[in-house]
């Protein structure tokens, strides 16, 4: 069985307020990088090939409601 290390690398301020949270986030900004935004374009169906779905899976998906309706 693997022993997981549950130690916290930095002290945690459980009584902190929104200002301290925003300060923590502001200090972390230089460490974060965001990917460049690229608009996703739809792929024409003519370029989609070689995809097969087993009939059982297709029936299962067909029986599912959309967005929990």
Protein model, in words:
This protein is mostly helical and 69 residues long. The chain is elongated, with a radius of gyration of 24 Å. It is 29% helix and 0% strand. It has two helices and no strands. The model has no long low-confidence stretch (mean pLDDT 76). It has helices spanning 18-28, 55-63.
Give a short overview.
By secondary structure, the chain is mainly alpha-helical. Helix content is 29%, strand content 0%.
The proportion of residues in beta strands is: under 5%
Distance between the termini: 42 Å
What would you call the shape?
elongated
Q: Total strand count, please? A: 0
Structural category: mainly alpha
What does the average pLDDT come to?
A: 76
- Based on CA atoms alone, the radius of gyration comes out at 24 Å
Order of helices and strands: HH
What's the helix count?
2
Low-confidence spans: none
Describe the biggest sheet?
Answer: none
Helicity level: 25-40%
Descriptors:
29% helix; elongated; 2 helices; 69 residues; single chain; mainly alpha
Write the layout of secondary structure elements.
Elements: H1 18-28, H2 55-63
